[in-house]
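User: Structure please.
Assistant: Input sequence and predicted structure:
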Amino acid sequence: MKPTRRPANPCFSSGPCAKRPGWSPAALAGALVGRSHRSAAGLKQLVEIIDRSRTLLRIPADYKVGIVPASDTGAVEMALWSLLGARGVDLLAWENFGEGWVADVTQQLKLPDMRVMHAPYGKLPDLTQVDPARDAVFVWNGTTSGVRVPNGDWIAADRQGLTICDATSAAFAMRLPWPKLDVVTWSWQKALGGEAAHGMLALSPRAVERLESYTPPWPLPKIFRLTGKGRLIEGIFRGETINTPSMLCVEDALDSLKWAESVGGLDGCVARAEANFAVVAAWVERTPWVEFLAEEPATRSCTSPCIMITDPWFQSLDPEVRFTTNRRMLARLDAEGVGYDLATHRASPPGIRIWTGATVETSDVEALMPWLDWAWEQERDAAKAQI
């Protein structure tokens, strides 16, 4: 039967993600619109974002934290173009965004010493093969596969290379082992539902030492430059952004950070994400027509679980028919206003992806589950009737 209970917030997109509970445009009333980000008031807000982010994420005091252009993508690209080339590099990829970083390094930077470690969707590469003498580039949480690294045990504490970690869908929902990570990136619009394309970059002392002792052989665009005259540009890490940030987005980011503090900081955010995931996991366990894309329970993402439709009839369909059937099923939820943007990424196997980060209410995830069953039954029966 068609469910009667509806999610209060039907936004389940994996980026931009759901706004924090209770958000409205009124939260932006104090935004410094029409003001310069270089003014005392504007700079103070940018520094506040850095300071609150550092405290919430428990970033070590000797790490540099800055606001950079172009969202998480810009932050990762800045790290890759500024830091790689001094050593060989191991590139890990098990989903779309990791594949993107591999493509940039192999096709654009074209380093002489690269090793690519691939794994299919649903699995991780053999992490024990990562060489601590080499740099390593990887995502912490694979947003398009729902596969995350379970911990940082595979990263050597006495490594010689740098670890460059895209953590945009892990920050604020998973505990990152900061001493094992030399470069960490995330964005405002991911885990806390911020607006617009602003990225965050955290650098360990080892990463700073690399920046100040190594000059890449290729030219660096202005938005990638972290050093000047061989020294770190400290202003980037004191709120002096490379480009002009939106002060509306700054206000929104501060609102999100304050909300995260109000629910218990990192511990509270992690607990909320894990509670949301537990609802999805319980539904998958009792539902015969689905399975997690991530094969190993320890690697299943608590923010972007990806679910395969394993029903034998569905799997017997032509791949293009499976894709369109899947999309039509999820379009039913959109039309009902109970679940938006639930399709897996276009580069992923067809299925369902549910953002379950901290800004999503567990009650909304609970309300969504019966609607998934309803939409599947409706679309399956309609499709069978046409065959």
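The chain is about 35% helix and 15% strand.
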